[in-house]
Amino acid sequence: MALLFARLPLAKSAAVAVFIWGIVCILTTVCTDYRGFIAQRFVLGLVESAVSPAFVAITAMWYKPYEQAKRLGTYWLSPCSSLNQAVSRYLVFRDRCTLLLSGVVTI
Question: Where are the domains of the chain?
Fold first, then answer.
């Protein structure tokens, strides 16, 4: 999916990818069996593989070259990102409201 950013306008395609990412995150709450969960995680990974390169490309276009290292380091190592991943992986089967809230906030 990241190859689409080279052919389509970056802002619009990134916005669509983030929107789809939020929808798929919300749809995690309706998974009831293992096969559905695996299919959902595949689609989530497909969309998520496009979101990170889009954010890096936007950062590269927005900031000057000497500012990019600090901004990308903050993006990759931000406490919110790490904390969200740790909490959501721990609570994925226990609390579906966490994933629902993450998807709604994304949209």
Answer: 9-106
Contact 47, 17 (CB under 8 A): yes
Report how far residue 41's alpha carbon sits from residue 33's, in angstroms, rounded to the nearest whole number: 12
| DSSP code string of 10-54 | HHHHHHHHHHHHHHHHHHGGG--SHHHHHHHHHHHHHHHHHHHHH
pTM, to two decimals: 0.67
Q: How far apart are CA 96 and CA 56, in angstroms?
A: 30
Ramachandran bin of 10, using left for φ above 0, alpha for ψ from -120 to 50, beta for the remaining angles: alpha
Predicted local confidence at residue 84, as pLDDT: 60
pLDDT tens sequence across 51-86:
888 888 888 888 888 888 887 777 766 655 555 666
Q: Please state, in angstroms and rounded to a whole number, the distance separating the CA atoms of residues 88 and 17.
A: 20
